[in-house]
Amino acid sequence: MRAIVLDCPGSFRVAEVPDPTPGPGQIIVKVDCCGVCGTDVHIMDGEFPPTPYPITPGHEFAGTVAAIGPDVAIDLPLGAAVAVDPSLYCGYCRRCRSGRDNLCENWAAIGDTVSGAFAEYVAVPAVNAHLLPAGIDGQLGAMVEPLACAVHGLRRIGPLSGDSVALAGAGTMGLLLLQLLVHSGAGPVTVIDRVTERLEVASKLGAAQVVADLAELSGHRFEIAVDATGVPVVVDGVSALLGRGGRLLVFGVTPAEATMSLSPFRVYNDEITVTGSMAILRSFAPAVELISTGAIDPRPLLSPPLPLAKYGEALSRVRAGQGIKWHIRP
Ligand SMILES: [Zn+2]
Ligand SMILES: [Zn+2]
């Protein structure tokens, strides 16, 4: 089969590699679509520490069941459409045993630490596959994974009852978080992004207000602040907008060594809550449901899928902030 292979950071090729065979408990998925995300840029640049090289990346994917290995107990007919939760956790470490699998001490993931879905076929644990209903195509199915991350983020914020929100970043994750917030009882959501086209999409998806620069909001106060940019100065800027009793969700991935300037006095005196959100935690099935029912509609985010041979172009577009969500259709 054909697959993207990264031999080392900065170097990739479209390679002919052996077809995967399903081990015990595994199925083979024929990949229909796989999303390109910021993590893939970090893997290309050698900035995602758990990645071993060579690797075939790709962790946001959907496809059809092409083969079933031994000892698969769950009913997944050949040809069935599935989206796959890429999370791999050990189940026995302290974090897993306390129900926080996403913080597993032996954390791994399809496309991040083992072969992923920028390939025609990929082997996955059958229990990670979620059936998709008719009418959900592979590109929509590939949006379940990022939505599952956003659902976990929403849960980390906690209950909402009309709270005003400042949301920085109108990329894929920001726009999915926006829709979830609007549908889950948040008050008016203000979206901040430098890219006009993204702000237009945010307005269509329910943002009460859109601004191109945080400075336009000076003097405003919000009950919830969300960073979906991963840019440290923006995390600082959006946290500064919190009123007393405010809640901050750090969702974007900043460089590991970055720090933030939130005042400990404010955390104490204003009872500011700071929360992080890491990947997926039992949020994949709800995300399938949200897309299947149309409650969340990722379609305004999507560009036409590109072939494997255009993987480099897709990464460049993600880097340049062109379009919103790009997929590879192997
Ligand atoms: Zn991703
Ligand atoms: Zn574990």
Name a few traits of the molecule.
330 residues; alpha/beta; six-stranded antiparallel beta sheet; six-stranded parallel beta sheet; 25% helix; binds zinc ion
Question: How would you summarize the topology of this molecule?
Answer:
Layout: E1 2-8, E2 11-16, E3 26-36, H1 38-44, E4 60-68, E5 81-84, E6 87-88, H2 94-97, E7 108-109, E8 121-125, E9 129-131, H3 138-141, H4 144-157, E10 165-168, H5 172-183, E11 189-192, H6 196-204, E12 209-211, E13 222-227, H7 232-239, E14 242-250, H8 264-269, E15 273-276, H9 284-292, H10 311-320, E16 326-328
Parallel strand pairs: 10-11, 10-13, 11-12, 13-14, 14-15
Antiparallel strand pairs: 1-2, 3-4, 3-8, 3-16, 4-5, 5-9, 6-7
One zinc ion is lined by residues 37, 39, 59-60, 146.
> How large is the count of helical segments?
10
Identify the quaternary structure here.
single chain
Total beta strands: 16
The share of residues in helices is: 25-40%
| Radius of gyration from the alpha-carbon trace, in angstroms | 20 Å
The residue ranges in which pLDDT falls below 50 over 5 or more consecutive positions are: none
Q: Give the bound compounds.
A: zinc ion
H/E order of the elements? EEEHEEEHEEEHHEHEHEEHEHEHHE
Q: What structural class do helix, strand and pairing data support?
A: alpha/beta
Span between N and C termini?
10 Å
Strand count, sense and closure of the main sheet?
6 strands, antiparallel
Strand content bin: 15-25%
What is the average per-residue confidence, as pLDDT, rounded to a whole number? 97
